[in-house]
Structure formats: C-alpha cells, structure tokens
Amino acid sequence: MSLTFERTLNPAPATAEERAAILAKPAFGSVFTDHMAVIDYSEEKGWHSARIVPYGPIQLDPSACVLHYGQEIFEGLKAYKNANGEVGVFRPEANAERLRKSADRLMMADLPEELFIQAVKELVEVESEWIPTGDGESLYLRPFMIATEAFLGIRPAKTFSFYVIASPAGNYFGGELRPVKIWVERAYARAGRGGTGSAKCGGNYAASLKPQVLAAEKGCDQVLYLDPLNDNAIEELGGMNVFLVVDGNTLVTPALSGSILEGITRSSILTLARERGLTVEERKVTIDEYRELAASGRLSEVFACGTAAVITPIGALYDGDEVIGSPDAPAGEVTLALREQLLGIQTGAVEDTHGWVTRIK
Ligand code: PLP
Ligand code: COI
After folding, report:
1. What's the pTM?
2. Residue 132 Cβ < 6 Å to ligand 2
3. In this predicted structure, what is the pLDDT of residue 230?
4. Which domains are present in the chain?
C-alpha cells in the first residue's frame, strides 16, 4: 500500500547560516528540522491524508486517549550522508516491523511497512540538507504513533496519527566518545513479566525516568535493569542493549526475555560478530557471573548499543557501594572494531553486504 504525500513547505525555514551553525555542533534531540511527515488513521478510511507539513505543534482534543492512557509507540533510526553526498537510512524495514509489533501490543493501528518507509523517505528527501557528516553524526529520525480519539472509556482508540520528525544528532552522551558509568538498579523496574518491555512505547520510558535521575545523582549515565523474575540477571539499559566481551573472543548478550527491547543495533552486531568469527552467545547473564568475570580478568570489554548510542563503551557498573570494573577502562579492541564497521556500513565507508542501507537520493 502506498499513498501520495501532499507537500506543504515551511514558509519560514531555518536559514542556511542557522542550519550550518546547528550542524557544526549537533547535540541529541534538542533541535528539529523544518518539516514533519504525518499520516492519519480511522476505521472508516484506514491510513489516509499522508502529508509533509511544517514542523510544529500538534492539536489534540484534551480527551485524546494518548493523553490519559499512554497509547503511544515510537521508533528511532538514522539517515547518513556518505562522502559523495548520497543519503541512506539504516534498516528502516526493521523499524517498520518493530513498530507493527509495538502497535499489536498496545492495540494500535497496523501501519504497513511500505507506508512507514514512504514517510521516512519523503521526510529525509525534504530535509537532506539537515544531515551532519562528522564522525558518528547523522539525522536522527523519530517516527511515532499516538491515539487521537476523544474518549475516556478504557478501550483501544479508533483513530490514530503517525508522525516522523527529524533531528540532527551527534553523540548521545555528549562530547567525544567516552566510557559510560552504569547504575545497577535494584529497587525499580522499567518493565515487568508480561508487561510492555519488548514494545517501544512511551510508558516504558516514563517508568525509567525516576531511576535515571537517581542514577545521575550518583554520577551514572544510564541504568542497568535486572530481570523482573528477580533472578539477578542483567537485562538492558534504559535506552540501550548491553554486550560483554569474554576472553577477547566471545560476545555475550542477554537473551530476549520478553521484557527486553529487541534492538536493531543488537541484531546487526550479532550478525557482524558471527561473520568476524567471534563466538556469539545470547543467554542469561547474572550480576554474580558479571562480577566473577570482571574479578578474574576474563571480562575484556563491555559496551552499550542502540540507534542513539551506536556502540558506546561501558566503564564500570555501580551496584550499591560496589564498583565492578574500572570507570576509566578505555574502549576495547572488539568494541572499537565493531563500532567502526557498523558506522562504516551506515555512512557508506564500508561495503553494505547485507542490504541494510536504503538509499534515499
Ligand atoms: N533498549 C531500549 C530500551 C531502547 O530504548 C533502545 C533504543 O532504541 C534499544 C534497546 C536499542 O534498540 P535499537 O538498536 O533498535 O535502537
Ligand atoms: C534510540 O536509540 O533510538 C532510542 O530510542 C533510545 C533513546 C536513548 C533515545
């Protein structure tokens, strides 16, 4: 299914100078481009009214379901510009598929993959001047769907809107790449057994804000959540998956448990690691095993990964008063090699043998 996107160009876009100043030093998620893509859904019309419009406030009825019951899902993916000025988006089909899974869990309208990709392409095409090209920089795309029906009864909404907005992005953690500090969260959970942990919905992130603030007060960058069954197993960070490198040649990541988000970066790394001849294990990893591996010196590297974070080295875990690992551990060999290869594929510097990059123009 495809729709024709009607284009209304922004009458007052950023000037070339304003844009250049932003692109010279992109942060993460604070500046947005001049336009957004929108598609509406109703039971009668299905997906309709596809359009590119000036970026700006959304008008909603105060009783819209999203404002009361959190019926909202989102995605994150990136567009890169290669050395020849060609623009590509990394694995949009995978994001489209995950959005469909999230929509199913949250009882929202099913957005066909083709429409998701069309919306992304239309927006990136209009905003191609907004893509920064420094190391690790990109145009971060944030597709999201909200329940717009004005109704306070508790049942799935009947009308939805899907949007894609775009933001020039540098390092998620700010500044140069550095090892991040991780707080091991023992009091709070972001997701429970049978909950929405494997869906990408706003509510999961709302639940993560308090532990994130408490962790930041202790000097940590991200929170590591443990499994909801209290098995002392590590799951994922508030916005990233986690990998351990053991003995320099084995890549270990927590198995998908139902409460972990299946990261597209995670799955890309698993593929690349297997091709590099590393042993790959998706399995349960307890904090006790982590501590023993670190103490014995077998835990050679740890890193976080996600669209926003790409691959970011993890320095130490802070578990109460205990510090596991070294806060200043430099990024390891495997971490840096995988980061270079993944970013290389994304930016066009390394051959894309998997067909992961969708060329826009
Ligand atoms: N886990 C969580 C909770 C996330 O928010 C993200 C980011 O999107 C990830 C993992 C990594 O997913 P991806 O690699 O698809 O960005
Ligand atoms: C992403 O990586 O796309 C996310 O949604 C996670 C968040 C840390 C921005």
Report:
1. 0.97
2. no
3. 82
4. 6-170 (3.30.470.10), 180-347 (3.20.10.10)
